[in-house]
Amino acid sequence: MADIIQLLPDHVANQIAAGEVVQRPASVVKELLENAIDAGASSIKLIIKEAGKTLIQVIDNGKGMSVTDARLSFERHATSKIKTADDLFLLSTKGFRGEALASIAAIAHVELKTKQEGDEVGTCLVIEGSEVQSQEVVVTPKGSSLAVKNLFFNIPARRNFLKSNAVETRHIIDEFHRVALAHPSIEFVMFHNGSESFNLPESNYRQRIVNIFGTKTNEKLVPVNEDTEVLAISGFVGKPEFAKKSRGEQFFFVNDRFIKSAYLNHAISSAFEGLLKDGAHASYFLNLKVNPQTIDINIHPTKTEIKFDDEHTLYAILRSAVKHSLGQFNIAPVLDFDRDSNLDTPYSYQQKGTPSVEVDRSYNPFQEEKIAPTTSQRVHKPTASNSNSWESLYVGLESKGMQSQNDFSGIDFETEEKNSSIFDETNKVEHKHTTYQAHNKYIISTIKSGMLIIDQHRAHQRVLYEDFLKNMTIKEAMSQQLLFPLQLHFSPQEIEIIQQLKSDLEHTGFIFQTIKEELVEITGVPVSVPESEVSIILEQLISDVENEVPDSNFSATDLLAKSMAKSLAIKTGQSLTRMEQEHLVNSLFACKEPSASPANRVTFITMTVDELDKRFV
Fold this sequence. Notes:
Oligomer: single chain
Mean pLDDT: 80
Strand order of the largest sheet: 5-4-3-6-2-1-7-8
Structural class: alpha+beta
């Protein structure tokens, strides 16, 4: 029998490796930015076009590469970061696998220009699909400039799986934020389609956070600092009142490397226990410094997951540090047994004791005064006839009251009889079993064939969704003017999303006065939207737009209607009156699709009498 196992060609092996390393344009951005940091750059520039599908270019002023190193860097498992297996547990650099450039070159057109500081000229290397097209001498500044063009040009199926430009750009910005936040001492500049998106100068950590997420972020931050033998923590957490529905502003950095850890995230949530509203997530920007020998970062191709030797200790230290900071800055209530000297009794009053209060217990305000009245008292003191006149008002009143009570008691009795016969027997019987709310979650109604059970939250979502969709389609939504303009602060990226959705929001009833870099001023809101809910609605909408995975039939109007309906719908646990229950039921069955919520979840179920009978068999 012939041999069937064979070695894969290098370009095929590189494409397979690229499937792990390069999942989308943001993966290329991450690898190239980390390489620039490892090269010792103090200034890094990122240029992208069409969400990275056409061009991703990173320019740095690092130490550059020689002619030989430039060529060798695109070979598989070629790296300057490690030499032995033991080096994996002493890592102080970002990359170490030696697969990134080889994987990128296998699925794109790559052009590298690099020069070392002592050289007069540099080298330019062009590679297309793992094949070197040319390597020439070129005049270029110190450092490296690597341009990745036409990503996935030789894997069209993979390119078709990419999302819309807006979604892919969002992922690129997320990666840019993660790298920029981990290295505030490095200058970062980002250009998208020719326009400058970010310009982050060298700064401290707090200023870097503010430069990325907006100036309003500064007042939301609470510093966290803790230094132990096991773990050193520095950074900031957000104040509970500024918590959002989304998890966007949550960053863990271990030894300047961004990681994802549900276990450590739970430690933060535990520290905020009792301070956050339901469904809200605290923001945090925390740097953790640990001994490199106690972690293993070689467990995932993207290096965003880390294995710790002693997670339980880290959990306890992190939770205590955050809890201490919240208490120290009067964010959370704490027990403080240290006396504040400013609250003590002043020294000059310590010997005087408690002042005494003298009371004349024999004083009777209703007793006639025997002392001669003064001039002022004579003016206001009533005469004898006047003093007794108020008693004459009540003479015979008791008998008249009894008589009047007897006179009207019969009329009241007859009226009550008539009213009770009308409402108790007809109206109350008519509405008694129409609807019933169970556990403040379900509305139960009787039908001819049995029983109807409605999920009030999903049903209200369907009603609101179709109302908003109709208003945005016919553009005749009603607005209510605000007495004072509502000012809301957002980050520059969130402002950009609001700008894109402005016209659709106006069709639902919102009226925008100004939309600036970090400020949105609203003068009118839809009739059904309370003023206190506006910020929650916009935050939920921004989160939905950022996290939505749109298909070819994606509609911004549809997404907006879904998001607003989800924010404004009656929540589980809300008690409804009988009239509200009936109105919701009638509104639901007046919808075009009453059986499903906007998220395609069941809104009601029916239980026939036969099914009920079977339960009692």
